[in-house]
Each structure stands twice: as structure tokens, then as C-alpha cells.
Amino acid sequence: MFDQVDQFKSQYGKKVREGTVVIGRLHVYSRYVSGLAFVRSKALPRDVILKGNKNFERTLNNDIVAVELLPETEWEEEKCKEDAGDQGYDDCDTEVDLNNLPDGRPIKRWVRDSREDGGRNLEVHLAKAMGAPAEYRWGNKRPSGRVVKVIQRKQALTVVARLADGALGPREPIQDNRYYRFKVYNELFPHIAVYGRDIPSCLYEAIDKQMYILQLSTQPNGDFVWKDDRFPLAKVTRVVGSVESVESNTYAICTAHDIPMCDFSEEAYACVPDTFVIPDAEEMKRTHRRDLRSEEFVCSIDPSTARDLDDALSITALPGGYRVGVHIADVSHFVQPGSALDEEARTRATSVYLVDRVIPMLPRRLSEDYCSLHPGSDKLAFSAIFQFDHHANLKGEWFGKSLIRNRCRLSYDDAQRIIDGDDAVLDTLDYGDARDAQELVSLKARTATSVRTLFELATKLRSASIKRGRVTISSAKISFHFEDAMNATHPIGFDIKRQIEANWLVEEFMLLANARVAEKIIEYSPDQGLLRTHPSPPQRTFVALKRILSRAGIDLTGRSSHAYQQVTDKICDHPLRDELSALMKYGLTLAKYVANGDTGLGTTSRRHFALALEWYTHFTSPIRRYADIIVHRQLLCALEIESIVKGSRGSRAHPVEPGSVEVSDLQTRPFFTPTVEMMNIVEECNAKKLLARNVSDASSALFLCQYYKSLRALWGSTSGGKPFIPRVEVTVLRTISNKLFTLYVKELAVEVEINTQSKSQRFLQVDPDSEGGQTNGEDEAKSPQQQAQPNDPANAEGRTAKSQGNDNLSVIWANHPETGENVVEVIEPLAGLTAILTIKRVRGYEEPDLIVDPPWERHEERMAIPTSIV
Questions:
Q1: pLDDT by residue (tens digit) across 640-665?
Q2: Is residue 89 part of a domain?
Q3: β-sheet bridge partners, residue 661
Q4: What is the DSSP letter of 144?
Q5: Do both 765 and 839 map to the same domain?
Q6: Residues 24 and 39 in one domain
Q7: pLDDT digit string, tens, across residues 376-430
Q8: Which residues contact 620 (CB under 8 A, 6 or more apart)?
Q9: Contact call for residues 792 and 799 (beta carbons, < 8 A)
Q10: Is the same domain home to 727 and 633?
Q11: What are 730's strand-pairing partners?
């Protein structure tokens, strides 16, 4: 891969030391054609803005670049700081004391940490090595700059693309010496130039009907070849498939979001043992693994189609209360730090869930066999055992490695039937290898008792969490049905799924385990702690949401989590329940991972706003999240440090002093990760988690398009020639600018973004006098930390609504059928419209689209989308 580090050092060393040239990673804003990018580094106090493609020409998203700062006269004044660092704990919430545990005990740093990151973060490492200033004096200004050097390319040599719209005229022949533009499915990428001679002639006839793999052309030094400084040059090397096929579209979606569909490397597979052997008693004793097979009656509750079962529960009635076990697959036993498997899991960071498949973070032998807590098998686990009184007050806890046996597997629907008193479902459950009639009777009875008792306790925990201010938003989600579930290509039906009580039965205990593990890690290894934080909504977001909710007769009384929960309570019985629930997501920031010891966070609270928790992490899904594997390792280290502090080295006469525990003395030292390296890990996990979510959403949208096409074909064969006009009722969720607004289709539980400049829409134009609601020209230059960027993995704030006064925009409809005059219509949040469902390929792959009806056609007959076509 192209790498110019040595040349850069000699060419720009002086300017780097002076601070006039800075080093960072380039992030294209939203789409390459936006002409806006940012350069970011942990060594810089804020992002550097690159305005206009000329200031970052011949560069690609994620490149490591050197940026020369423009004169300060071209910098912008930093806007009001109310959104950055304003945690919003007015009203009901209180700020968190970062130096004390919730019970008031001071947090002590027992371990002497290393501040070295091993050079993995090149932009920081290189700046430090070249003597860049430790502090940049930019005042309250946001610097602008231009790229002067690409130091390292991060882009792969191949991309997935299709012929760009308008690149070839109808019946126009392809010429060898002319180049043709290809559109890459990743919108952060520029168009690609391909000469006619580099397109195989056998592809000419259907050139615009296929997706292709393009091989980027390179120079002798390894860098890419550019055409007119605008387009990378490439050759067509392979056909992916038809632009209509599920497989091709899925491949395009994953590639566009940097999700690997390839298999694991041979080196990673070599780390997976050929067989899984339960450790003997001596090994169990040596590793302090506790045998819970007879002590805990363990059950699992998961989606019916799940193969990677990474959590299970147990409950035992005690005098005065209960003992509850939260048992999590012991993935860290199999994934050793620094191994090829660990590196690949870190790169993937998360399993990706598509409609028709799962792209696993770990090889399937681990994710679906050795680690998965299947019923009837002995499995290694990391368990958290909690003692409660009858009022659900926590009275004690224990964490440790364990050996368990899952006695019964249930789906959420199975558990719900038991909660509802339907014991007939007990005869249909999976009890593993149990066959003896008497044993089955006992298993069924204990399963029913366990589920109902867990539900009773979970109800009390949920009630207590809501009282403390936890925000619970119920959302609807489309789920597809297939004729053959093992060959899910064309859906034959769908339904809309909503959370049921069995979902939050499991959720309550997972939240409990995550919160208690976070506090244990913070108590004994605070700086290294990987936390899941959720910043409170910025003031401008709160104001916008409050204004829109008022249209529905709902008052958002403040910015505390208590106030938001009061709103969600009111939404439950509202006629616009689903629409308002979808809207509420835009009123919250995106949760993110942080390293607790990251000095760049300053005194910013690590609190989780929506959960109303001081400390929170992810511990319960290590099969599908790399962050959870790290947390397992951190918990092991914390437990050993606790034993040192409280055990043989710690006593009243000779207490262990903070900072006196050496990492090299720990038995768990291979699991210890320095704070600086933890900062790199959380950044990678945040980026991949956002990409994975976008891919899951895009997959769902793709299968809705497949269902639409099947419905259209069925209509064509049965309607007697009537036109296919799937008109649906829609609700305006929000206006994003005078160019964009979002519509919600309740019967499909889908959101569709409408571009007012789209040629497919029937309105003539946007009223130039429209204020455009929630953004303006200045907003276009806000940094990724300040503005929502669903397509930018660098964005850590996510789905935040922007607000600048008015929420409305106006469109102009031409030629009213009765008056012949133009009609101006105000598009405002929560307004009801109708629209025709169709398909678009703006990003290349298929997505649902809506063609908004003019006002005079909204009385036309609607077409209820059938939930089944068989």
C-alpha cells in the first residue's frame, strides 16, 4: 500500500514543528460531491475543515494526510459551545463525580499504566515523532486548510461500482480512447474513470445492468493514478451480478460500508481448536473456574432463528429473596490477545445481521458451536451471580469464570406464552438431550417457574429503573417471511414486530450485569475501563424536539432523562405512537464507547443518559461484539487487582498503595490493555458499530424492495390490466433542510428520506422563501462532532436532529386540475400525506422510495400493502 512517511518527514518536518502543517485522518462529509471534508486527530484540539474539493483533491476518505493551515483570516469563529460538553443535567439529573464511586468511595488507580500505543494510530504517532506542538493555540476558531500530502492510503485496490447515470448515451458505442464514469456504491468515494479499452467487449450490451469489481490503477510508487485530478483510474475486472439481484445488492451494500464478506484467514482458523474439551477438575481449580452445572438451573431466551447464543439466565429462590445468575459465553477463553484470531475479530469488531444471513465476527465453529450456549451441552461461561431481596434490592454479587449447562432453550415468543400462563408451550421446547420422561417433567416445571420468577423480578427492576429516569422507547420493525427459511431470497410476507414483555425480561438482567461489571472495572482498573456512554441531548436538539412534540399535544418539560421518559409514557397511547417513537430517536444522541482514562474527554460525564446510569459497559454479547471481549479481559484484570488489594498483599497494617501494582506481576497481564491503546479500540468499535447498523437497515430496505417487486409481478398477472399504484399513508417526521425531509410509513415501519431536488418527485421546486427548518448554510460547515452523519463512520454523535428555528419547508405543485394555478404547500412535521411506494437506486443498491402525491390526489383510493402474497 502506498506509504510516503519517510519522504513526508524530510519535506514537511519544519512546518509540522511550527504547527502550520498538521497530520490527521481525512473524513469526507456525507458524500464526496458535498465538497466538504474534515481532518481529525486525537493530537488536535478540533477538526480542520477542508472546503471545496480543490482543497482535498487526489485524496480519499480515511487517508492519512498532511494539511497546511490556511491564513487565520479564512478561519471561522467557533459557534456557541452549548452543544459541546453541555451535559444537560439541569432539571432532575445530577452531574457525576468522576473521582468517586456512586457510594462515595474514592476511585483509586492501583495499576501503573503505560501510555504507549505502539504506533497503531499513525497520525498521532507520526506527529509526536516529528515534534508537533503539544498544544495548538487556535483560540475559539475552527481552522481551515488544504491537503498538501497524502502520507498513507487506506483504500483497498478494488471497489464495487456501476456505470454512472448519464455516462453513456442511448445506443452510444463504447470507444477505446474515451473514459467513462462509474459510480462507487460508497458515497464517500468519487466517481471512477474507466477507459473503454479497459471494459471487456462482452459487457458492452448490458453495461448499465450489471455491478462490477473495478481494479484501481497504480503508479510505480504504489499510489493511485488520477484522471484530471478528480477521478481515480481503474479497470473492470469482474462482474458482480445484476443490479436487480439480492446477492449483488447485498454485496454492494456490505462493500460500500467496509463490511468484509470474505472468509476468515487461515491464520485465524488455525487459532480455533479442532475439538472442544471441557477442562478437568484440576484445570478448573487452577483457573478458578466454578462448576455451576448442578448449582444453577440455566435457561436461555433468544430470537427463534438465533444460532449464536451468548447469554443465559438462572434464578433460585432463597430465604428472603433470590439468587440470579447471568451467564455469558466465555469467548475470551478461545480468543487470545494478540493472536491472528484476535486481530481479525478486532478488525471486524461486530457481527453484522442482515435479513438473510449473519456475517460473524468469529469463525462459526466458535460463534455457533464451542461458545454458543446450546441446550444440553456443557459450556464455558463468565458468570455474574446476584443476590436480591424480595423488593429487588441488590444485596450481593459474585463474578467469575464458570462451567454451566443450559437446560432449556426458549424463544421470546415461548417465554411470553409461559408468562401469559400457557403451559402447553412447555411440550415444544428444546431441552437438549433429555429424554427420560420423569426428567422432562421436572425440566418443564423448573423452566416455567424460572421464567415466571425472572419476569416477576425483572418487572420490579424495570419499574425502579424508570423511576430513576431511564428512557424506554418502543419501536416497530419489519420482519420478513420466506417459503424456505434456509434459502431466504424472496420474501413471501412480512409482519411488524414490537417489543414484548419477554424481551425486556432478558434486557433487565443484561442491563444489570453490564452496569455492575462497569462499576467493578472502574473501581479497580479505572483508566483502562471501556465504557458505553450516552451524552444527553444538546440544547438545540431539545428545542427542536419540544417544538415538534407540541404539535401532537405532548409537552417535553425539560432536558433530563426523567422528562424524556414522561414523554415516552404519553406516546404509548397516542394515535401517532409509532411515528412519535421514530421521532424520539432523532431527539437523542448516539451512544458510543469511550476509554474512561481518555484525557481528551476532560471532565465530560461518562454517564448513560437513556439508562440513567453513572457507569455502563457491554459485557453480555462477546460472540458478536469485540468490545465485550475486551470487557471480559478487563473484568478478569479487575478481579485479580481486587484480590491483591483485599488479599495477601492488602491488610490494615500494610495496605496496598495506589500505583504500586505492576502489570508485569499480574497473572492476567496478557489481558491488560493500556489506556492509549484502549482509546484506539473504542474508536474502531464505534466506527464499525455504526457501519453495521447502516448495513442492517439497508438489508431490510433491500428485502422490502424484493417484496415490492414480487407484489408488482403478482398484481400484473391478476389485476386484469389495472395499473399498479401502491399508494400509502405517510407522516412527515422531520425536515432536515430545504432539500430533505423524512417520511414514515406506518404499515411498513419504514422511513424514507425525500430529496426535494429529485427528478422523480412531482412538485416543481422548493419555495425559495422556505426557511428549510432545521439547517442552513452555516450548518453545512459544522464538523462531524456537531452534525449527524449516518454515512460517516467517524461520526460519534449520530442521529441528532438539527434545529434552527422553523421546522417547515414549502414545495410548489404545478397546474391544479381545476384552477390551473400553482399550489404552494407547507411540509411540516407530523403532517399526514399520501405517496406512491416505488424503488430508487440513488446509492446504487435498491432502496424504497416514495413519490409524494399532490394535495388534490390524496383522496384517491389507497392500496393496503398485503402482508402476504401466498
A1: 999 999 885 555 557 888 888 999 89
A2: no
A3: 111
A4: B
A5: yes
A6: yes
A7: 999 999 999 999 999 999 999 999 999 999 999 999 999 999 999 999 999 999 9
A8: 310, 311, 326, 328, 510, 513, 514, 628
A9: no
A10: no
A11: 833
